[in-house]
Design goal:
Layout (H helix, E strand, L loop, with lengths): L6 H15 L4 H8 L3 H10 L8 H22 L23 H22 L11 H29 L16
Helix pairs in contact: 2-3, 4-5
Length: 177
């Protein structure tokens, strides 16, 4: 039998979930409220509308958010770039150089995790265009011919508007220095 939660704990859980929805990390929320990251994860998971048989999805979502948080820590503090001699590499002013490659890879991984979370929730359903190959090729050739006609019309209009003879020198350029 589960314990009944106090109104204070229920209010705290509502606040934690609202802050998480606004983008706060599990680690940040744990530090702010003085509880473990795992407890924050369980609080957030309890607000998701999954059914009992969908616990795998909830566990997967929790692992993705944990990975997102941990990679976020690497993104915010990527560490130092190492020189070939094993010492910390230095920037142009002699300051220690951050490992920019690690930061880029962490940012890329965070984006992949967010994409996976959106796919898990079914937010980004792909729209498939039903255009068969012959229709697509016909449309491409029609576009090419339309562009060719437009360019020919522009060339005719330009030829009729000016009395320039091809190859004629219009102006001398100043000598190069």
């Amino acid at each position: 039998m589960a314990r009944t939660r106090s109104p204070a704990v229920a209010k705290r859980n509502d606040i934690i979930f609202a802050e998480w929805r606004r983008g706060a990390t599990l680690t940040g929320l744990a530090e702010k409220h003085g509880i473990s990251r795992q407890v924050v994860g369980r609080i957030v998971a309890s607000f998701h509308p999954e059914l009992e048989e969908d616990t795998d999805r909830a566990l997967y979502r929790g692992e993705l958010w944990r990975l997102y948080d941990e990679v976020g820590d690497v993104f915010r503090n990527p560490g130092w770039k190492m020189a070939p001699n094993g010492h910390v590499a230095e920037g142009p002013d002699g300051e220690p150089a951050f490992d920019v490659n690690a930061k880029i890879q962490a940012g890329d991984l965070r984006l992949k995790v967010l994409t996976e979370l959106r796919r898990l929730d079914g937010r980004d359903k792909q729209v498939v265009k039903a255009m068969d190959r012959p229709t697509a090729e016909a449309a491409m050739w029609e576009a090419i011919h339309a562009e060719r006609r437009r360019l020919e019309d522009l060339a005719k209009a330009a030829a009729g508007a000016s009395k320039v003879v091809p190859g004629e020198v219009l102006a001398e350029l100043p000598p190069g220095t």
